[in-house]
Amino acid sequence: MDQFENVSVLKKANIYYEGKVTSRTVVFPSGEKKTLGIMMPGDYEFGTDVKEIMEILAGDLEVLLPGSKDWIHIQGEGVFEIPAKEKFKLKVTKVTDYCCSYI
């Protein structure tokens, strides 16, 4: 889906790594939440509270998922999932646009 209908957007930005990663929270009528954000080039580590589905809309990065020794390269578009209560690493090499869904 290219756009979301009938949603609320929280005004306050989510800012990480001194502004190199930012997002806005989108809340659906059902209570479902997603974030839309941008990651600047850099190395990052994030943790999850709930299962997350990361949809890469544009960019270039590598991701190291929990329990894996192999980095996954995503150029352009791609999707990956992170289980709840886990950490994952990112190596962003080009400005990356993303949508994160919380399950």
UniProtKB/TrEMBL annotation:
Task: Classify the source by domain of life.
Answer: Bacteria
Q: Which EC number(s) does the record attach to this protein? A: 2.4.2.1, 2.4.2.2
Q: Which GO terms describe its cellular component?
A: cytosol
Its UniProt entry gives the catalysed reaction(s) as:
guanosine + phosphate = alpha-D-ribose 1-phosphate + guanine; inosine + phosphate = alpha-D-ribose 1-phosphate + hypoxanthine; a purine D-ribonucleoside + phosphate = a purine nucleobase + alpha-D-ribose 1-phosphate; thymidine + phosphate = 2-deoxy-alpha-D-ribose 1-phosphate + thymine
Family, as annotated: Belongs to the nucleoside phosphorylase PpnP family.
Any one GO molecular-function label of the UniProt entry: purine-nucleoside phosphorylase activity
The UniProt function text for this chain reads:
Catalyzes the phosphorolysis of diverse nucleosides, yielding D-ribose 1-phosphate and the respective free bases. Can use uridine, adenosine, guanosine, cytidine, thymidine, inosine and xanthosine as substrates. Also catalyzes the reverse reactions.
- This chain belongs to which protein, by name? Pyrimidine/purine nucleoside phosphorylase
What InterPro entries is this protein classified in? Ppnp, RmlC-like_jellyroll, RmlC_Cupin_sf
Q: Which Pfam families match?
A: Ppnp
Q: Which UniProt keywords apply?
A: Glycosyltransferase, Transferase
> What's the source species for this entry?
Leptospira ilyithenensis
